[in-house]
């Protein structure tokens, strides 16, 4: 039900242009509604009744949303923000292109082994994989999340610090992710040297990648459950 | 006795200022107190509440700041400004005058503020 309340609030702000003020108000309203909902549940209300009471307590939101649409920002800030979002969108696009080419090359590199038998094929695979790796690294360093440009100054500053605190936990996952890949490489080398089945052991990387994605997915799921409980 | 919510809604500003004159607070808390004081009969709609906050802040009667407590949900607190206190006094005086007049008009009685 908390998700539904979130969804409902998102809907209220659907046609409000992004601004620090709108963001802050959205957050404030959501917090108030979620607290109210938790309170109704504590009083022994059913989820449905509590939800409809919460939604009903919002009242006529039209006036606020009209205000936020018409005078969203002070002078000169409009261009700044539009610029910011345009640049961000462009970056995301470039990153997506680099990433997809990189991943495509990985796939092709495997095909090289199949098409060209014995050593030349393996060499080809490594060369192509190296290029692919370079592209993926480029995509992340040039346009990736860590290099994200800071949003313009008018975003409510305190609100931002609060967000940064939340991002701390994300960093922990990244460290974890790095460790997983080191482990996969170690396992790959160990198994390969022991079995000498180099033509087969590269599959470890595919399995490793799947495991990595799986672990990250589980972490995200667990974390979102936790935040829900806190409200 | 039933409460005429529309009559109260016109007085959102003075209700909020009077509450903030006592101590800093945030939307949910204020509304909860109003609900308790009115024995569950009156609750300000969220939209009305935040519209009023925005209006009062724009007029310089109140200021907002983000609470520092480290809970999952950080709150936006509101505090009354000196000019807000002045405005509150003016509004209370106006209200008393108006109430006196309404009482005289509908009951022919003299209404004494705060003596009931």
SSE string of chain B = HHHHEEH
Low-confidence stretches of chain A: none
Shape of chain A: elongated
Mind summarizing the main beta sheet of chain B?
A: 2 strands, antiparallel
Rounded mean pLDDT of chain A is 77
CATH topology of the domain at 5-81 in chain B: Arc Repressor Mutant, subunit A
Total strands of chain A: the figure is: 0
The radius of gyration of chain A is 25 Å
Distance separating the two termini of chain A: 11 Å
As laid out across the biggest beta sheet of chain B, the strand order is 1-2
Roughly how many Å is the radius of gyration of chain B?
16 Å
What is the beta-strand fraction of chain A? under 5%
Helix content of chain B: 55-70%
Biggest sheet of chain A, open or closed, and with what strands and sense?
Answer: none
Label the structural class of chain B. mainly alpha
CATH superfamily of the domain at 5-81 in chain B: Winged helix-like DNA-binding domain superfamily/Winged helix DNA-binding domain
Which CATH C-level class of the domain at 5-81 in chain B is it?
Answer: Mainly Alpha
Total of helices of chain B: 5
End-to-end CA span of chain B: 17 Å
Q: Which characteristics define this entry?
A:
heterodimer; A: 231 residues; mainly alpha; 3 domains; 9 helices; 82% helix; elongated; B: 116 residues; Arc Repressor Mutant, subunit A; two-stranded antiparallel ribbon; 5 helices; 2 strands; 58% helix; globular
In short:
The complex is a heterodimer of chains A (231) and B (116). By secondary structure, chain A is mainly α. Chain A contains 9 helices and no strands.
Give the topology, please:
The complex is a heterodimer of chains A (231) and B (116).
Chain A: H1 2-12, H2 20-42, H3 47-56, H4 62-70, H5 77-115, H6 118-143, H7 157-195, H8 198-201, H9 203-230
Helix pairs in contact in A: 1-2, 2-3, 5-6, 7-9
Chain B: H1 5-9, H2 12-22, H3 27-37, H4 46-59, E1 62-66, E2 76-80, H5 82-107
Antiparallel strand pairs in B: 1-2
Helix pairs in contact in B: 2-5
């Amino acid at each position: 039900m908390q998700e539904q309340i979130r969804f409902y609030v998102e809907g209220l702000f659907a046609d409000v242009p992004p601004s620090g003020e709108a963001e802050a108000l959205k957050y404030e309203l959501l917090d108030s509604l979620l607290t109210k909902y938790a309170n109704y549940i504590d009083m022994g209300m059913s989820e449905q009744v509590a939800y409809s009471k919460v939604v009903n307590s919002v009242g006529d939101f039209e006036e606020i949303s009209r205000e936020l649409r018409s005078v969203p920002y002070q002078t000169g800030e409009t261009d700044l923000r539009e610029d910011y979002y345009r640049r961000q969108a462009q970056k995301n696009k470039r990153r997506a292109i680099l990433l997809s080419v990189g991943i495509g090359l990985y796939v092709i590199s495997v095909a090289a082994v199949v098409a060209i038998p014995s050593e030349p094929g393996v060499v080809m695979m490594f060369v192509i994989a190296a290029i692919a790796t370079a592209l993926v690294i480029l995509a992340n360093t040039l346009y990736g999340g860590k290099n994200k440009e800071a949003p313009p100054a008018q975003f409510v500053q305190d609100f931002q610090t609060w967000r940064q605190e939340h991002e701390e936990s994300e960093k922990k996952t990244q460290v974890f992710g790095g460790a997983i890949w080191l482990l996969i490489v170690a396992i790959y080398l160990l198994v390969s040297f022991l079995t000498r089945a180099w033509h087969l052991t590269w599959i470890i990387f595919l399995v490793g990648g799947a495991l990595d994605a799986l672990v990250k997915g589980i972490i995200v799921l667990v974390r979102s459950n936790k935040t829900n409980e806190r409200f | 006795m039933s409460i005429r919510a529309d009559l109260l809604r016109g007085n959102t500003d003075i209700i909020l200022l009077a509450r903030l004159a006592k101590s800093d607070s945030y939307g949910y808390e204020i509304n909860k107190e109003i609900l308790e004081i009115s024995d569950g009969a009156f609750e300000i709609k969220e939209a009305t509440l935040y519209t009023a906050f925005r209006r009062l802040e724009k007029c310089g009667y109140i200021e907002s700041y983000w609470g520092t407590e480290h809970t999952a949900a950080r709150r936006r607190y509101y505090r009354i400004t000196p000019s807000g206190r002045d405005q509150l006094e003016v509004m209370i005086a106006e209200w008393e005058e108006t109430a006196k007049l309404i009482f005289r008009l509908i009951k022919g009685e003299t209404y004494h503020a705060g003596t009931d």
